[in-house]
Amino acid sequence: MKKATKKAVKRREWTKNDIKELKAHSKARTPIGRVAKATKRTIGALRVKASQLGIGLGHQR
């Protein structure tokens, strides 16, 4: 039986441009799935960064 291997975590620094793009998506209320694809980052990473910046992401329920 083969043991499941975990995918290696690749951390990428947030550049000024990345943050600017995230803020633009926040203002435009872009769905988080689409933002994740556009920025090539996980939904979790986007949520954490948005929380740190104090901005909303996606639609508010």
From TrEMBL:
Alphabetical keyword list: Ubiquinone
Protein name in the entry: NADH:ubiquinone oxidoreductase subunit
